[in-house]
């Protein structure tokens, strides 16, 4: 990749940490990564344990808030940032319904601050913005989201992401900032915060706790293994046309209840217990404004840049369940809250913009 100094925002979160590991391990990137993360409840430096030592001088961490323009200006100048890969966001739909303020602040104002810092930086090469298929709203039983689908976000989360997408697009049109945007479907894999469906169900199944399924359990998501998402981002950053948007998906549409049942069966197989975990399935009240179905048409990305997912849902889910089984200390520290005491000891108080439940 043609970058010397990449600023990755939100690199201590789920997808950002997978992306940093993968980029540094790959053969085609020789530059330096500066990870800017404010360490909200979703940011965990343990996700990048050992990386600074494994890549001396090539991985640097700055605890900073993207809502702080002067901190961003200083970081851009200090590290001569030429590329931004922007993951940092409040990412959980249920939290956005309970308390939208931090979503508006980080996802909209934070993106604006980063765009301003990029626009005024010398020798700037690319701003890649990571976004979501949720900006398109909900599908019925037929059809797919394409890059031409009109925006129709239904939650405060997706509305804030839609707003940030528009800002990025506008900075390309108005100021000629070199940008790319990707809108991706649901990710799963290692290091996902256990509030999201798949890790929550795996850990609750292991602990023999109820497995909450919203509404009738028939909502559909299009699932993508996180390594495939990271590879798609790298491909777009390297070869994507500037000013363009690319959809990313897995061709893996699943009803929620089918996923929960698959996880129960995998946990039964890999960590046998007295009875089937399926007995723990508990239907609960639906999410307000719950989008019914997402499905992505990624033929633009495949046709123009040659990307397609490598992992099937069955193999990716098995790998993922195995990872959570083998990394119980990681999830125990999160579920007990111990990770936050450790972060406070290392880095000081948590920021105000963390999204409390
Ligand atoms: P995550 O919640 O796991 O991580 C978000 C990270 O951003 C955390 O490390 C957090 O500390 C950091 N952060 C939050 N507010 C910040 C701020 N004000 N300043 C600096 N850092 C801040 O999120 P994720 O699931 O890894 O998602 C990453 C990106 O990908 C988001 O932009 C999200 O909208 C997008 N996305 C996610 C998915 C998915 O399935 N998870 C799918 C498509 C797109
Ligand atoms: O589509 C991309 C989006 O996927 C990303 O932009 C978001 O950042 C990411 O959080 C994810 O959003 P979802 O709302 O689809 O993911 P979540 O894991 O929260 O829920 C997946 C589905 O499972 C959804 O239909 C709601 C349902 N669900 C979720 C939880 C947490 C349940 O039935 N029970 C649960 O306990």
Description:
- With 357 residues, this protein is an alpha/beta fold.
- It is 42% helix and 16% strand.
- The protein contains 13 helices and 12 strands.
- It has helices at 14-25, 51-54, 69-79, 93-98, 101-119, 156-175, 197-206, 226-239, 256-270, 299-305, 313-326, 328-336, 338-347; strands spanning 5-9, 32-37, 59-63, 83-86, 126-132, 179-184, 186-188, 211-214, 220-225, 244-248, 253-255, 281-284.
- The strands form 3 sheets. Strands 3-2-1-4-5-6-10 form a 7-stranded parallel sheet, sandwiched between helices. A 3-stranded mixed sheet has the order 7-9-11. Strands 8-12 form a two-stranded parallel ribbon.
- Helix 3 (69-79) packs parallel to helix 5.
- The longest helix is centred in the middle third of the chain and has 20 residues, at 156-175.
- The protein is globular, with a radius of gyration of 20 Å.
- Residues 353-357 have low confidence and may be disordered.
- 2'deoxy-thymidine-5'-diphospho-alpha-D-glucose binds at residues 91-93, 132-134, 185-186, 196-197, 200, 212-214, 219, 221, 256, 287, 294.
């Amino acid at each position: 990749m043609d970058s010397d100094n990449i600023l990755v925002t939100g690199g201590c979160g789920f997808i950002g940490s997978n992306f940093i590991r993968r980029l540094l391990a790959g053969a085609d990137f020789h530059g330096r990564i500066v990870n800017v993360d404010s360490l909200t409840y979703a940011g965990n430096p343990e996700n990048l344990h050992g990386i600074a030592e494994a890549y001396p001088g090539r991985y640097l961490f700055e605890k900073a808030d993207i809502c702080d323009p002067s901190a961003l200006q200083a970081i851009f100048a200090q590290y001569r940032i030429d590329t931004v890969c922007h993951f940092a966001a409040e990412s959980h739909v249920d939290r956005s319904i309970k308390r939208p303020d931090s979503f508006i602040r980080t996802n909209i104002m934070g993106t604006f601050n980063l765009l301003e810092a990029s626009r005024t930086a010398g020798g700037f090469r690319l701003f890649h913005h990571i976004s979501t298929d949720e900006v398109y709203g909900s599908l019925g039983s037929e059809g797919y989201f394409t890059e031409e689908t009109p925006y129709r976000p239904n939650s405060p989360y997706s509305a804030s992401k839609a707003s940030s997408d528009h800002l990025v697009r506008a900075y390309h049109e108005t100021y000629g900032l070199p940008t790319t945007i990707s809108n991706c479907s649901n990710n799963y894999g290692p290091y996902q915060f256990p509030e999201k469906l798949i890790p929550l169900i795996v850990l609750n199944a292991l602990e023999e706790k109820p497995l909450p399924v919203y509404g009738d359990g028939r909502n559909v998501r299009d699932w993508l293994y996180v390594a495939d998402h990271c590879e798609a981002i790298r491909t777009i950053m390297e070869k994507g046309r500037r000013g363009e948007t690319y959809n990313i998906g897995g061709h893996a549409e699943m009803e929620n209840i089918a996923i929960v049942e698959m996880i129960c069966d995998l946990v039964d197989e890999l960590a046998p217990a007295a009875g089937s975990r399926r007995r723990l399935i508990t239907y609960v009240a639906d999410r307000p404004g719950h989008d019914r179905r997402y499905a992505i048409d990624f033929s633009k990305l495949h046709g123009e840049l040659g990307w397609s997912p490598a992992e099937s849902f069955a193999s990716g889910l098995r790998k993922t369940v195995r990872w959570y089984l083998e990394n119980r200390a990681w999830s125990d520290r999160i579920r007990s809250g111990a990770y936050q005491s450790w972060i406070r000891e290392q880095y000081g108080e948590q920021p105000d913009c963390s999204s409390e439940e």
